[in-house]
Amino acid sequence: MSGIGLMGGTFNPIHLGHLYVAEEARIRLGLDRVVFIPNQVPPHRRDLHDMAPARDRYAMVCMAISGNPDFSCSPIELERPEVSYTFDTISTLRERNPEHAFTFLSGADSLLVDWHRLDDLLGLLESFVALTRPGSTRQALEERLDGLGLTNRGKVRWLEIPGLEISATDIRNRIRKGQAFRYLVCEPVHDHIRKSRLYLPPGARASGPV
Fold first, then answer.
1. For position 209, what pLDDT does the model report?
2. Hey, what domains does the chain have and what are their CATH numbers?
3. What is the pLDDT of residues 16-45, one digit of tens each?
């Protein structure tokens, strides 16, 4: 049975930090490959006005991972227009690929929000790997999980990965201000953002050393 890592997110835009974390997790967890799954409509985001179109975010992920045969990108959440719940996505993937064991990769802080059918989701997975950074407050997350009374609590694993200090929010802010962002993302992603004028206010002109 193949071990497949799943990394969901808005990837708004995908940057080098995402790629580094995915590769580090793949190697340390012994996964066969990692599948990136861009959201269509993320359930917990309130900044949808600042979201690039799903087709652009998907295209940028495909560009960013094109040189790594151990990475792939799935459009599964783009196939439906409604809110993307991870439980529904994993259920569909298991139906389509019963030969795979799926490990979900997510930033540890994501466990601080309410997940749709979290216990059922854990039951579908080989494991849910919470990616932490040095100095992150794991105790608070452990206490929250313990308080939920989860039957599948043991599926949650912790993996500390020294993250690159790169933020998609910072990248978007840099683009709006005309500041440099070229070496925070892959070159094809940089070119696509500029050509498609992503993250600029309507009518704005790109300027500065971007």
1. 46
2. 2-166 (3.40.50.620)
3. 999 999 999 999 999 999 999 999 876 655
Tell me how far apart the alpha carbons of residues 208 and 135 are, in angstroms, rounded to a whole number: 36
Neighbouring C-beta atoms of residue 27, cutoff 10 Å: 10
pLDDT value, residue 168: 94
DSSP-assigned states of every residue in 60-94? HHHHHHTT-TTEEE--GGGS-SS---HHHHHHHHH
The single-letter code of the amino acid at 110 is: S
Q: What is the DSSP string of the chain?
A: -EEEEEEEE--TT--HHHHHHHHHHHHHHT-SEEEEEE-SS-SS-S-GGGPPPHHHHHHHHHHHHTT-TTEEE--GGGS-SS---HHHHHHHHHHH-TTEEEEEEEEGGGGGSPPTTHHHHHHHSSEEEEEE-TT--HHHHHHHHHTTT-TTGGGEEEEE----S--HHHHHHHHHHT---GGGS-HHHHHHHHHHTTTSPTT----S--
pLDDT at 206 over 60: no
Q: Give the pLDDT score at 80.
A: 80
Cα 191 vs. chain centroid, distance in angstroms? 21
Q: What is the pLDDT of residues 96-150, one digit of tens each?
A: 999 999 999 998 888 888 899 999 999 999 999 999 876 667 888 888 899 999 9
Entry pTM: 0.91
